[in-house]
Amino acid sequence: MASFSGLLAKAQMEVTAAGDGANGISSLMDYVGKGGLDVGDDLVVLLYHIQFACKRIAALVASPFNSALGKHSALTGAASSERDKPKPLDLVANEIILSALRNSGKVSVMASEEDDAPIWVNGDGPFVVVLDPLDGSRNIDASIPTGTIFGIYNRLPELDNQPVEEKALLNSLQSGTKLVAAGYVLYSSATILCASFGSGTHAFTLDHSTGDFILTHPSIRIPPRGQIYSVNDARYFDWPEGLRQYIDTVRQGKGKYPKKYSARYICSLVADFHRTLLYGGIAMNPRDHLRLVYEANPLSFLAEQAGGKGSNGKSRILSIQPVKLHQRLPLFLGSCEDIDELESYGDVQQKVNPGYEV
After folding, report:
1. 196 and 297, same structural domain?
2. Which of 69, 161, 184, 338 is the 20 to 30 A CA-CA neighbour of 135?
């Protein structure tokens, strides 16, 4: 495994070779603007506001006072108004991002896990943003990593004459193949923004001394084969036969890769995917649990741009046409050869959930 200093040195060499940055170090804004990618002014403005919102969320997650959010104090009496009650942290994160998207002037629609329906933001905005504002928020009190997941589409101008609710929904239900950009922000020992704009997957680490996201993982390539699987195997006896056979086989070193696989499971989608992206292997939830629009599609886009795959156990995630905003499905992300081997077992999607809620 490469050290952080080694990854930073690699990033410096790549940016220097591109002729960007006096010191051979590139910030996210430089990289997507005048530097390595030149994604266009509108998208640069939008990304500026997204990364600003995520820096606010990072500070909130790390605050010693966040544990009070969403909990009713014993001191609040009957006279307290509803608006005075603290909000759960994921709702606060949702409001922070919505405010940032409004201020950008570049977003027509925002569709979030926290909202029942998409929000029409600005009729002139060229982009549609789908997001999970704070994935894994239930883990915050235990200081387990959390994250923000987002995907960006072009607004569909052919829908402009439709009623607001209809065009907001249809803009949000675009196939993952139409993503313009996608990314996640990992709030952990470091705050890392990993994104793709259709030309590779790149990760930027927040430098708290300057407030900039600095390119530290350029052109990430997920290994074609890993040695780690990530899944809640406490549910082993609820799994279909194909999935049990696959896990039994690879952890005994009897699969197509003749080494025993290790289990690594954080129970935080962004964190489990981030590790898989860097080291290879497979991260999965075989239940109809994760959301296609704002979790599976953006992460599958990142996986593919890094040379990996995103699958529902049978087919490519990005090729699935969403029909509902909060549509759920099984999700398998990781190395190409690992995904191919998993799919070869056939029966890997868990369709029943005995004894617990989805």
Report:
1. no
2. 338
Give the span between the Cα atoms of 265 and 275, in whole angstroms: 10
**Residue 39 and residue 320: Cα distance in Å, rounded?**
26
What pTM value is reported for the model? Answer: 0.89
Distance of CA 350 to the CA centre of its chain: 22
| 331-348 residue pLDDT tens | 999 999 999 999 999 999
pLDDT in tens, 262-318: 999 999 999 999 999 999 999 999 999 999 999 999 999 999 999 999 999 999 999
Q: Clarify whether residues 65 and 198 are in a common domain.
A: yes
Residue 250 lies in a domain: yes
Q: What are phi and psi of 313, to 5 degrees?
A: 100, -15
357 flagged as catalytic: no
Residue-number span of the structural domain to which 35 is assigned: 4-75+84-217
Which is catalytic among the residues 30, 238, 272, 295?
295
In a domain, 353, yes or no: no
Last residue of a domain, one of 189, 217, 245: 217
Cβ within 8 Å of residue 286, ≥6 positions away? 231, 239, 240, 243, 313, 330, 332, 348, 349, 350
